[in-house]
Amino acid sequence: MSFDPQQIQDILIIIVAAATPLLLAAIGEVVAERAGVLNLGLEGMMIVGASTGFAFAYMTDSTIVGVIAGILGGVLMSAVFAFLTIGLATNQVAAGLALTIFGRGLANLIGEGFVGLKRSGAPHLYIPGLTDLPLVGRLIFGEDFFVYFAILLTGAVGYWLMRTRAGLTLRAVGENHTSGHSLGVPVRGIRLLAVLFGGACAGLAGCYLSLSYTPFWSPDMTAGRGWIALALVVFASWKPWRALAGAILFGGVAVLALAFQGLGVPIPAQLLNSLPYLTTIIVLVVLSLRDSRGALAPASLGQAFIPDR
Asked: By CB neighbour count within 10 A (0-12 exposed, 13-18 middle, 19+ buried), where does 111 fall?
């Protein structure tokens, strides 16, 4: 079977679309985990961002308003998580799981009156002469702003973490919060900002699903993408640019499942739909067997910080 340039471009565009929400959520989680906070509530934050974003976009007929509302929804959810884990020093795993369950219920409540409704998707870039180029035109010069922002955010976060004083301070907090506190570093303040940033990214990822990827609202439309994003952070060894490569890989696996279904490959649809999650499990197993210093998590990840009184 041969593919013409247009078909190849269409496949690549679909892969990028599938990878974008994973990348947005993973970048926010990279920052949070680099600060020592394990946020398992990504799925709940994403679904709240999706429902809130679609609801406000539909009511105001403005994608921008929907994006702002979705981001704020993710931030508010992350603020609850931060209050529990940073303010009260509760168990981060338990708080994250509780937030995911709460987020799914809250999202269904917010989106109850919008199920099945549709609106026009986010506008795509169009540059005469460039967008119409064969093979790469729409892929490079015809995406929506979510895609371009995700790539720019990846580069900005990577530079900030590795090349700036503030980024190095955040990484130091994630490695040893006790030493950081003894040197006068505001550990809880840094972790709070990192968690809020992660929530904003998760809310934006949810917005992409309901305002561009589909675009409509349906319950549980995140379909486990928050969990895949968490695995993607480990896959990327807590490095933003590796998260970009991993998101494309996972997005490609999801598209592969759809392609097999479209070609009528005699494989059960349930097995094809599970491919992204099977890939996640396989990647985690491989990483757990790999002995590499670069794959080690931040030393203080998941540990509650209680300052000396």
From this structure: buried
Per-10-residue mean pLDDT of the chain, 309 residues long, equals 71 91 97 96 97 96 96 98 95 96 96 90 90 88 95 97 95 93 92 98 97 91 92 90 90 76 67 73 72 69 83
Q: Is residue 30 part of a domain?
A: yes
- Displacement of CA 171 from its chain's centroid (Å): 20
When divided into structural domains, the chain yields a total of: 1
Phi-psi region of 130 (alpha: psi -120 to 50; beta: other; left: phi over 0): alpha
Contact 82, 294 (CB under 8 A): no
pTM of this prediction?
Answer: 0.91
Q: Which residues, in sequence order, are CB contacts of 189 under 8 Å at separation 6+?
A: none
Residue 100 lies in a domain: yes
